[in-house]
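in:
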């Protein structure tokens, strides 16, 4: 038996087939080969076409099925991980009404702040665990106010993973975890928030049918079988946002466990058994994938930095022209800790929740034409990303998170020793790197949702530890001095 996992990312779609018996990856593929584009019709806006996600998904799946490495008829479940907080709107014929307003779009900040005041800060935080902020509900409210003709045509709203499941099955569903990431979920009443729906004037019919995270969200239909060869009746049995799913992929399911990613954005994600929130909503709380399973409380506490891998990508394409990431990393390693005084603020990908939704922009501070080279920029960018995570890490600790170790997949920014060592030393927290990723985690999650494993721990055990990075005393003061200089630079903007 085989399990199919899809990871609907901002930069690409990754598809993976996992052997259910061994839990080993049979084959993976992604599409496109180059990073997918983000449309920005106005400053601070960020959009992608959901139909493009579907086309990329089909091409990634076709790369798998054409490999000859497995029998497509033996795929027994499908799991989906997806970029969080995006808004997809469809009409009664399931046609997309407008491009998706994705996670890093900043247009709804003011809308969310106004709703925060109307609901009442204390009530909003205690019931939603977050300010409405710039999340999916506020994005929908922006459409309602600014594109009323499209809003009137809307039959259902979805998150990106709900949309891909709809394309596979023809059914539209969501989950409490998904609704919580859109800030539609009331944790006190355990239902869709009346406060949010009434404040924004939304009709409850816009919300899809709510099903458990690990359950049947529809089955592959005839059209999908014709297009991809997947068998009719194969269930989509798991859907989750990319950060809860990354935690699942790393077997981070219980209080005190911490996961991290550093792809387009950077995230530190902790699991708590308490329904808690940050009073300033700089750190966000959502229903984890196993929230309310066996009546247990599992809240994912999420620190997000929008400008992480996207900064490194920008540097690659605009400064390091012709170099690949390993070559950039090698040159960065030749520069001393602190990048000879150069500090980079990585906040050029929309409003940052950690900075109370301020649009700081990316900043290169203390750049000296006579002493700084391209290699200094490579290192300073990676240090700036690690320092931004440290800045938020301190907020998480102030909110009761006490990490002993951070788990991460050996991918993206964690392929760089400069980034990894900077993060470990500045936080004084070891990082364990594992051979896993979101698509594999989604595949295993789908297997559990389809009843192919007896328990979630059984589905997720067997992780392969690749490397542990421990804090070191050497150069510690240099790291601390560089971080202090970076915080002084940030203080000019916040």
């Amino acid at each position: 038996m085989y399990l199919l996992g899809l990871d609907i990312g901002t930069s690409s779609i990754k598809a993976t087939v996992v052997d259910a018996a061994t839990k080993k990856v049979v084959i993976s593929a992604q599409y496109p080969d180059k990073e997918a584009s983000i449309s920005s019709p106005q400053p601070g806006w960020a959009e992608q076409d959901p139909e493009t996600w579907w086309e990329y998904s089909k091409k990634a799946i076709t790369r798998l099925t054409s490999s000859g490495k497995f029998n497509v008829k033996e795929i027994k479940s499908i799991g989906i991980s997806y970029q969080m907080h995006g808004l997809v709107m469809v009409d009664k014929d399931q046609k997309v009404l407008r491009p998706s307003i994705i996670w890093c779009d900043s247009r709804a900040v003011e809308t969310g702040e106004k709703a925060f005041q109307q609901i009442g800060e204390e009530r909003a935080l205690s019931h939603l665990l977050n300010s409405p902020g710039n999340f999916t509900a506020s994005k929908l409210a922006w459409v309602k106010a600014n594109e009323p003709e499209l809003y009137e045509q809307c039959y259902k709203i979805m998150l990106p993973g709900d949309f891909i499941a709809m394309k596979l099955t023809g059914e539209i569903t969501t989950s409490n975890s998904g609704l919580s990431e859109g800030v539609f979920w009331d944790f006190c009443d355990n239902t869709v928030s009346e406060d949010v729906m009434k404040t924004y004037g939304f009709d409850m019919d816009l919300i899809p049918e709510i099903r458990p995270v690990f359950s049947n969200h529809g089955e592959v239909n005839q059209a999908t079988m014709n297009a991809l060869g997947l068998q009719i009746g194969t269930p989509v049995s798991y859907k989750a946002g990319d950060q809860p799913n990354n935690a699942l992929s790393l077997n981070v399911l219980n209080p005190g466990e911490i996961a991290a990613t550093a792809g387009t954005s950077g995230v530190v994600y902790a699991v708590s058994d308490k329904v808690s929130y940050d009073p300033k909503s700089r750190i966000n709380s959502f229903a984890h994938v196993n929230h309310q399973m066996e009546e247990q409380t599992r809240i994912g506490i999420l620190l997000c930095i929008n400008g992480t891998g996207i900064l490194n990508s920008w540097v690659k394409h605009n400064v390091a022209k012709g170099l690949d990431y390993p070559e950039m990393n090698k040159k960065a390693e030749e520069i001393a800790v602190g990048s000879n005084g150069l500090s980079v603020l990585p906040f050029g990908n929309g409003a940052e929740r950690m900075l109370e939704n301020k649009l700081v922009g990316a900043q290169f501070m203390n750049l000296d034409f006579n002493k700084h080279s391209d290699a200094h920029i490579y290192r300073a960018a990676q240090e700036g990303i690690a320092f931004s995570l440290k800045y938020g890490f301190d907020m998480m600790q102030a909110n009761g998170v006490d990490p002993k170790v951070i788990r991460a997949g050996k991918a993206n920014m964690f392929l760089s020793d400069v980034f990894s060592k900077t993060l470990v030393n500045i936080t004084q927290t070891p990082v364990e790197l594992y051979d896993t990723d979101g698509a594999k985690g989604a595949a295993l999650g789908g297997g559990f949702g389809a009843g192919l494993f007896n328990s979630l721990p059984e589905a997720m055990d067997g992780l392969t530890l690749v490397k542990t990075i421990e804090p070191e005393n050497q150069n510690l003061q240099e790291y601390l001095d560089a971080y202090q200089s970076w915080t002084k630079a940030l203080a000019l903007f916040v």
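note: The longest helix spans residues 374-398.
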